[in-house]
Q: What sequence folds into this?
């Protein structure tokens, strides 16, 4: 009986009260401005050279010269990357199957370089985009534990890089150290760029859901109400259109890499019939396929959320 009473006492203490439950629900439904909610993402993106926009004042954004320094540093890193790749190809030290297996890594490095070029080219559009978002008061539901997804991406990129450079079955041992930086950045940068873009899609989804609730809760429609809803819809449509113009190339690159890595996996399976075939090669390629498949799945899920919010 004492044990049962002790259990019941613990349950009563752990059971949330009405006020605590209400406070927790309100904190979960609390919305914060776009720039404030994504401050962690923008800070990491700045360190990686992917975010060069700074908030100079209320509803005012501009390109930061200081934030251009990481971007320029990574551009120099891309010069190093292509120098290493060009030297390896010039020395003709890769066999046919090694060249095929390394081809996606070379393509990832190229897509990273192209991303930095577009970031610099479209920096003015990004500054205007942030300004419009702030002027319209776009907000996102507050989320907790945002840094959690950062560490799995970092760990996967590190492990995948180690898998490629440790064994001489894919990269010759004399060039393994030189390929550490290109392999890691070619894996980690695209993954984080997806998260950076997803933050904008989340903002659009949140705006659509808020507009949908507002329409459903409206009992009496007047001319002013219709005009207000139409203005909000045009604003959200502008958000989506601007996001497509700035980030549409990422979706195209993801689809190309998905097809390419799928073909690479089939090629690694075909090598199993030859003497050069090895389960290690299949493990490396299937890990790359799973990673890009997961990113394609996340893109499709966000697209489905946008369609569901519209409907």
A:
């Amino acid at each position: 009986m004492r044990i049962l009473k002790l259990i019941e006492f613990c349950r009563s203490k752990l059971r949330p009260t009405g006020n605590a439950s209400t406070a927790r629900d309100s904190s979960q439904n609390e919305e914060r401005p776009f720039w404030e909610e994504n401050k962690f993402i923008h800070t990491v993106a700045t360190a990686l050279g992917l975010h060069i926009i700074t908030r100079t004042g209320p509803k005012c954004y501009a390109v930061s010269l200081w934030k251009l320094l990481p971007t320029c540093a990574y551009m120099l890193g891309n010069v190093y990357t292509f120098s290493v790749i060009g030297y390896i190809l010039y020395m003709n030290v890769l066999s046919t199957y090694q060249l095929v297996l390394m081809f996606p890594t070379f393509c990832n490095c190229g897509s990273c370089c192209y991303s930095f070029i577009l970031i610099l080219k479209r920096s003015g559009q990004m500054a205007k985009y942030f300004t419009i978002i702030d002027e319209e008061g776009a907000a996102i539901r507050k989320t907790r534990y945002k840094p959690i997804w950062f560490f799995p991406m970092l760990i996967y990129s590190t492990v995948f890089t180690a898998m490629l450079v440790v064994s001489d079955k894919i990269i010759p041992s004399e060039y393994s150290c030189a390929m550490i930086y290109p392999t890691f950045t070619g894996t980690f940068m695209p993954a984080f760029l997806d998260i950076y873009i997803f933050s904008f899609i989340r903002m659009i989804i949140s705006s659509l859901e808020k507009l949908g609730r507002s329409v459903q809760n409206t009992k009496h429609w007047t001319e002013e109400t219709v005009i207000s809803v139409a203005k909000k819809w045009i604003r959200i449509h502008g958000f989506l259109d601007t996001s497509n113009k700035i980030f549409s190339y990422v979706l195209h690159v993801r689809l190309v890499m998905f097809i390419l890595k799928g073909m690479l996996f089939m090629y690694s399976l075909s090598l199993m019939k030859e003497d050069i075939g090895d389960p290690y090669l299949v493990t490396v390629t299937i890990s790359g396929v799973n990673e890009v498949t997961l990113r394609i799945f996340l893109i499709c899920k966000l697209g489905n959320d946008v369609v569901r919010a519209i409907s």
Observations:
- The radius of gyration is 24 Å.
- Residues 20 and 26 are 10 Å apart (CA to CA).
- Strands lie at 31-33, 53-57, 60-63, 139-141.
